[in-house]
Amino acid sequence: MATNASAASVTQSTAAAAAPVGHYRWYICALLFFATTVNYVDRQVIGVLAPELQQTLENLREQVRAGLLPDDVLDFRAVAGDDGVSVTPSVKSGERGSSPTVREGVELTVEADEVREIARSIHGETYRLNAETFFQTNHDLLPQLIDNALKDAAGDLAIDLYCGVGLFTLRLARTFKHVIGVEGERISADFARLNLANAGLINAEIANQDVGNWSEGNSQFDGVDFLLLDPPRAGAESRVITAILDLQPKRICYVSCDPATLARDLKKLIAGGYVLGTLAAFDMFPQTHHVETVVHLTIASSVSTQGQSRDCQGHRKDGLVELSGRFVSC
């Protein structure tokens, strides 16, 4: 399936010592907020990049070549929204007060101003964010990812760990009486609150606290119907997994961008009494080895485990690989 990446980062690095001052080589991380090195080359066109980001990166490259950007600015991150592009460090044209959206032919300068806020509409929800926050990059597959992560989840209490700007929190607030989102980054937590308020959802709260610290101090909740966690590549800390096992949510959804740390954490959850239900892998980052995985688990006491086997069937459709069946731990 043809997809365009909607977030990118660019790093400028001085060339070898023999190269003249002011000459640069680049590596372009075209898909992800975390670093993925793609050769030291000056890429003219990145086939999977959203057109508005392609233009942004071309303009930034030209400004670096012309020596118009400060030498101490080594990294740019950009994300495309429905209403333009947000870049950090903040990039503006020479005209004071003009829009930071990068347009063809506009001369760019780096400003100390606030990073531009943009909006992105996904699956009926509108999210405000900027380039300093994390947001899933492949917007073509996001509706399927959200649907698979939440399925028919509903009830009294849901907890959303590492909630970011509220990608899953908003949808959870529409099907649960009360939702708690936990996010360590202040900017992301502020956007999550803003997005909930803009959606008129008053039954959700956002805790701006380190997820590990919050988990250790809030493992006393009773009757957690659904817990979703979407941690960074490092996965969940051991103390977060311990707190989840203490909470004993009826259902868990683990969204992961690293199969290795996912396997590590699933081993702990299964050892703690959970049964692996379904696993779906999304090709969110085309032309890379990265994959986004959504796993559902149910507490063992709430399901019948008779007749479980390792048999599963794989199905591929529109960038989604899903393994369905029943599983048992080793």
Structural description of this entry:
There is one protein chain. The chain is built from 7 helices and 17 strands. With 330 residues, the chain is of the alpha+beta class. The protein has 2 domains: 7-116, no CATH class; 138-325, 3-Layer(aba) Sandwich (Rossmann fold). α5 packs parallel to α6 (238-247). The chain starts with 6 loop residues before the first strand and ends in a 5-residue tail after the last strand.
Properties at a glance:
330 residues; Rossmann fold; 2 domains; 7 helices; 22% helix; globular
Average pLDDT taken over every residue: 77
Give the CATH architecture of the largest domain: 3-Layer(aba) Sandwich
Topology-level CATH name of the largest domain:
Rossmann fold
Q: Helical amount among residues, as a percent range?
A: 10-25%
User: How many β-strand stretches?
Assistant: 17
Q: CATH superfamily of the largest domain, called what? A: Vaccinia Virus protein VP39
What is the structure about, briefly put?
The protein has 330 residues and is an alpha+beta fold.
List the helices and strands and how they pair.
Layout: E1 7-14, E2 24-29, H1 51-65, E3 75-81, E4 84-88, E5 91-93, E6 108-110, E7 118-122, E8 125-129, H2 142-150, E9 155-161, H3 169-173, E10 176-183, H4 186-198, E11 204-208, H5 211-217, E12 226-229, H6 238-247, E13 251-256, H7 259-271, E14 274-282, E15 292-299, E16 312-317, E17 320-325
Parallel strand pairs: 9-10, 9-12, 10-11, 12-13
Antiparallel strand pairs: 1-2, 1-3, 3-4, 5-6, 7-8, 13-15, 14-15, 14-17, 16-17
Helix pairs in contact: 5-6
